[in-house]
Amino acid sequence: MTQDLRTGQGWRVGWRSASDAFPALVGSDDWAIELTAAEFQAFTALLAQLTQQLQGMSSELMPDEAIALTASNDQIYLELDGYPHAYGLHLIVLQGRRAEGKWPAPVSADFLLACAELAATLKCPNAES
Description:
The protein has a single domain (about 5-120), classed as Transcriptional Co-activator pc4, Chain A. It has two helices and eight strands; from the N terminus they run ββββαββββα. The chain has helices at about 35-55, 110-120, and strands at about 5-10, 10-15, 25, 30-35, 65-70, 75-85, 85-95, 100-105. About 30% of the residues are buried. One of its GO terms (biological process) is regulation of DNA-templated transcription. One of its GO terms (molecular function) is DNA binding. InterPro entries: DUF1818, ssDNA-bd_transcriptional_reg.
């Protein structure tokens, strides 16, 4: 059984291979959602997509200009809202049990790195950020 739980201030992400239906976990200090492997793959891919979009647009924004970016597929909706240096994330699971959670600004760079590393370990496509 592979078990990997990573935590930081205001976030946690993990994987437990022995769990059949919901091996992944994402959350904050106050909430958590267990995800299927496909949902976790979608989450990490969309998270990488949004952070890359933000990096690409940040030079075009005024210093006090906020931005909202969204990405979704049939399983996950993800919204990034705030400033390039301090933004929040909103996650909605769109199928099955339907759930949602939010990481307030500023989302930790350590959280983004932990998600990308865990996804890479699990060989999720498009997981690098």
